[in-house]
Amino acid sequence: xxxxxxxxxxKKGLGTGxxxxxxxxxxxxxxxxxxxxxSNSLNSAKQDYEQQQxxxxxxxxxxxxxxxxxxxxxxxxxxxxKKVFGQIAQARKEYNTAxxxxxxxxxxxxxxxxxxxxxxxxxxxxxxxxKLTSNDNVRRLMDQLEGSENRINLARRKYNxxxxxxxxxxxxxxxxxxxxxxxxxxxxxxxxxxNAQKAPKVDFDN
Length: 206
Fold this sequence. Notes:
Keywords: Membrane, Transmembrane, Transmembrane helix. It comes from Ligilactobacillus acidipiscis. It is found in: Membrane. The chain crosses the membrane at residues 15-36. With 206 residues, the chain is an all-alpha fold. The chain has a single domain (2-197), classed as Up-down Bundle (de novo design (two linked rop proteins)), CATH 1.20.1440.20. Helix content is 78%, strand content 0%. The chain is built from five helices and no strands. It is rod-shaped, with a radius of gyration of 30 Å.
């Protein structure tokens, strides 16, 4: 009788142990599967914004490279507009510095300022030197710069959309738990300050 009780108790113990083991295994499976799912989701979002970032950088660099071509094409006929050319040279220098730094905010401000000063030059050409616009090379460069600005605007929107998706995954539960484990942080939007988007004023009477 005593042996039967021991057998029954051992059987119960084994049964309880198996149940605990199964529960632990299921929990590990659930958490492990969840981690893999959210980790893959975060990685995909990261890869997407990095790709969009590359496209944006290419568009920005193309525009920056076109600016001196336009300047060189019109500079000989616009010798008195030294202030305009000086502003463009400074804006391009600041853009190149910001691009090398990798700081998103600085690059956004610098690119906005370069766009504003370049637009200022184009306005000067149209208003004060209309004959230059009939030059095929000048017109082609102006059209290319306009196209580059359109590509930049499109690339910026795509980049910011990708950043929004990534940031949401980083801060929202439960993917935020995985993001913390992987030390993944939110990223800055490519957005310039309002002042950086304004072209410097040029007094054409001086």
